[in-house]
Amino acid sequence: MQAGWHSLLRRGGRILRDSAVLMWTSASIGTTYVRAKQMAFFAAPALSGKLLKRNNYTSPSVTPDLNRPRTELASVSQGHNTLKVRWRDGESDEFPYVWLRDNCQCPACFLRSASSRLLRVADLAMDVRPREVQVSKDGYFLQVVWENGHESTYEADWLNERAFNTRQQSVYNNTYRLRPELWDSNMSQRIPRASFDELMEDDAALLKLLECMEVLGFTVVSGARREEGELQRLSERASHLVPSNYGTTFIVKDKNDASNVAYTSHGLDLHCDLVCLHYKPCVQLLHCITQFSGDGGDSILADSHRVAVQMRELYPQKFRFLTDVLVNFRDVATDEGFQFDIIARRPMISVRPDGEIKTVNMSTFGRDSHFGVSPEEAVSWYDAYLTFCDLLYRPENHVTFKLEAGEILIMDNLRVLHGRTAYKDTAEGERRLEGGFWDWDMMRSRRRGLQKKLAGSS
Ligand SMILES: [Zn+2]
């Protein structure tokens, strides 16, 4: 069988090889070849009803995961605009016809190598209806012949994973984004930690870090070398560094003519970084290369999403002010010869459509003095803002610690606000950190990839 496939692919040349993925409907090589050829030229979507009736199709294109129980279909029936599906376990689901047609997995409609739809909108109509529907004898496939003769085959597993029910939708929601767990000062007792060397070598450790970042929003990594370049090394393994107006990485220390308040020894209010950028960096890394040995230079963290939720509960009207009024955030300076003047206009608190907090835009030093509201509105806004700050600065909302040399603090810049206590640097005890940013899209992509990889190897 395998040899047959290979010689078939050779015979068919490039087009057939590229179309190998579509050889899913028939157990017979001969029929597969004819089908593949038809599909390769996208010539004949209309297959004869005979194929449907043979009932012997299997799916060589999808590598079956033998460890996983395969979903089986029991029966299907046609409703007004949905297909009603009953599974062997007795549960049932409905699939809209227009959705089924839109998601046909045949090679003319779907490019498997790109996991992308090829079907054009012009070929999708609201009144699309099946002419025939049938479940394979083994229950693993649903086959639909549409009124125009186009034929679609859906694997039962594939359909089940996409069922329009809350259970399947919550599985996908977890793939999309892990649910955050909001925290308060009790987190001081269980600061999430990871080891640099383990992250570099062990996929499970890296996955744990990425999951922790989504759920808790910060981690302290220990055991990095006390030199520049460690963020680069970790980023090559975990995500990738996203440049900003301060470069791809930047050094945080007390500098003459500082281009940023962070580059001084002043204390810093709780803030997130670079609110002036419309694409505010998602995640910040701070690698402590050397730490100030005297008092000061401590890091303070707060879960701004928790504080925002408190604000919404206690002061709903003031909360609305912070979500509705647009604030200007601006950064004007010259850093390492690069002159910039960057402005972003955004509310202090952004909420997702489902009501979850999306981000808190807080930066005492990054907020501009220009304010595009009336004086009365400005007064009301300050009242709301200072109320929020009262909540934010309650010790019950803080985690405080002092980073040690060789530690990297990783923080969700959309959620975890960070501050610093003032320190008085000396020539001997120079506090020096290297900073950089990651991006949530790439981090979640890495998390999904590792989840698949580790699930496959267990
Ligand atoms: Zn199709």
Protein topology:
Elements: H1 2-18, H2 29-40, H3 49-54, E1 73-78, E2 82-87, E3 92-96, H4 97-102, E4 110-111, E5 116-117, E6 130-135, E7 141-146, E8 151-155, H5 156-161, H6 166-176, E9 193-195, H7 196-201, H8 203-215, E10 218-222, H9 230-238, E11 249-252, E12 268-271, E13 283-290, E14 299-303, H10 304-314, H11 316-324, E15 326-335, E16 338-347, E17 349-351, E18 357-360, H12 375-392, E19 398-401, E20 408-412, E21 416-420, E22 432-438, H13 440-457
Parallel strand pairs: 9-10
Antiparallel strand pairs: 1-2, 2-3, 4-5, 6-7, 7-8, 10-20, 11-22, 12-21, 13-20, 13-22, 14-19, 14-21, 15-16, 17-18
Helix pairs in contact: 1-2, 8-13, 10-11, 10-12, 11-12
The protein binds zinc ion.
What does this structure look like?
31% of the residues lie in helices and 25% in strands. The chain starts with a helix and ends with a helix. The longest helix is centred in the last third of the chain and has 18 residues, at 375-392. It has 458 residues and is of the alpha+beta class. Strand 1 (73-78) and strand 2 (82-87) form a beta hairpin. It has a six-stranded mixed β-sheet. It has helices at residues 2-18, 29-40, 49-54, 97-102, 156-161, 166-176, 196-201, 203-215, 230-238, 304-314, 316-324, 375-392, 440-457, and strands spanning 73-78, 82-87, 92-96, 110-111, 116-117, 130-135, 141-146, 151-155, 193-195, 218-222, 249-252, 268-271, 283-290, 299-303, 326-335, 338-347, 349-351, 357-360, 398-401, 408-412, 416-420, 432-438. Residues 104, 106, 108-109, 150, 152 line the site of zinc ion.
